[in-house]
User: Fold this.
Amino acid sequence: MDKNTTYYQKKGLKFIANVVRETNDLYLVHCGHQVCVPGYTYQHKTRTDFHLHFVLEGKGIFRTDKKEYQLIKNDIFLLLPETSFYYAADEEEPWEYIWIAFNGEIALRSLAMIGLSYEQPVIHSAVPVRNYLPYITRLLSYHELSRSNYLMRVGILYEVLAELMAAQNKTPSKGYKYPKEAYYHYAIKYINAKYTEVTVKEVAAHIGITSRYLANIFKEMSEVSPKEYIMDKRMKHAENLIINSDLQIQEIANIIGYSDPLAFSKIYKSYFGQSPLNHRMNAVQENEKK
Assistant:
């Protein structure tokens, strides 16, 4: 016997579950909205449905059997049937997300048209994912068990998937496959993971665009160039090692991608206004005064 549809609400969390099913094409299982506390974790047991999560704010990690993903605002991740998953909110910037769980004969095919699959369970949204929040809010409002509410829920589920398909399949300008925002965020993720060893040309090649187009995107989205962004990541890493480690200057230069410690020292001084050695000595003196 089917359970009754239930609605649950407390601070930071709203969801409906045990949604009655009357069709095999596409049907809602549950949905919700959660503001996570720092370090909040969830380990899924094997599921039989598709769980689609939209990151509204903050960041966290999502781990599958094959890979771990560092996720940020406007990322979308998918929990698939018969597969185990783990995800956790960041300790400093815990995420807020909405989710919708569903199944049906056309579920997997619909997700593939969005760009999601067993091989690719994560995508970056082509539009702000907060655009999808009103759909979840509406779904949560139709939690009472009635024929009209059932039809409303199914209709909204189709709307969500249709909006996703339309947004993720728009052809951007300049003949590129994805919107500028998607290329920008994928470039940022790649640089954050590889900044000690990567060049602008390699970043552009990795995400499938030209260096010039990448530079234009960065200028539009962040007002800094890709080269400046990589340099900033390297110098901040170097500063942390200078102040908080006993490593030699040459070792630090090698760690952040410079084979020539003299060249590194010159760049460091131009960035911080003092040489690495002087910066370390000044930091030690400041700590001794405390």
